Amino acid sequence: xxxxxxxxxxxxxxxxxxxxxxxxxxxxxxxxxxxxxxxxxxxxxxxxxxxxxxxxxxxxxxxxxxxxxxxxxxxxxxxxxxxxxxxxxxxxxxxxxxxxxxxxxxxxxxxxxxxxxxxxxxxxxxxxxxxxxxxxxxxxxxxxxxxxxxxxxxxxxxxxxxxxxxxxxxxxxxxxxxxxxxxxxxxxxxxxxxxxxxxxxxxxxxxxxxxxxxxxxxxxxxxxxxxxxxxxxxxxxxxxxxxxxxxxxxxxxxxxxxxxxxxxxxxxxxxxxx
Length: 274
Prior knowledge:
CATH class: Alpha Beta
Order of helices and strands: EHEHHHEEHEHEHEHHEHHH
CATH architecture: 3-Layer(aba) Sandwich
Strand content: 15-25%
Helix content: 25-40%
C-alpha cells in the first residue's frame, strides 16, 4: 500500500510544486514506483514542470465518468519508467473536483505505487482541505522568511488537527552567504520555530528556474548540481535512508578575490562531499 504524502506550504511561491516534481523524480530514480497528483486543479502547473503538459488527453474525472480507462489517464514519464503523473481534472473544468471523487481516484491507484505525492494548492482554503483529506503524511515546504514561516506554522497546526502527525520539513532557497551575515534566517532558527523534523535543505539557484522552464526536474542534471543533489538527498531521507543535509561552516577562510557566492558554493560542495 502506498504512502500518501501531501506536499504543502501555506504561502504560495515557495517552490512547493518544484519540490514535488524533484522529490518524485528522485524517488523513482531510487527504484520506488511513484505517482504525482496535482491537487491544484484550477491552476495546475506540475505537468509543466515535468514536461508532460502536451501528453494530457484524459483526466481522473474522465475515469470516473467512464470516458476512458484508468491507465489511459495516468501518464508514464518516458525518462523514468517508475514515475507517473495523474491529472485529476482539466484546468478548464467548470466544477471543482470533490473530496469524494479524489478519494475514489486515490483508492484506484493506491496498490500500484509505493509513494503517492499530492501537490497541494497554496493557502488553507477548500483546495488545501481537500488535498490533505486522504494523506497520512505531510511535507511542509518553507523559505527562510518570516511570512513563509508564519503561514507554515498555521498549516502544521491544521495538519495535526486532522490527525496527520508524521510531518517533515523542507527548507527551500537557502542562501548561505546571507545566513552568515544575519540577513536571512538560519536553518536552526526555522527548525526551532516550527518544531518538526527537518529532512531537506535546498540551496537557492538560478539553475532550478532554468530547469523548471525546460520541464526538466533539476535532479536530472549532472551529479555536481548542488540543488539536484540536495533534492535527491531529501528523497533518500524520506525513504528512511540516512543522507547528508546541507549545513554551513560558521567560519571559512576566503582567498583574495573570491566572491561570497563562490565561497558559499565551495562550503556546500565540501559538506555534501561531491
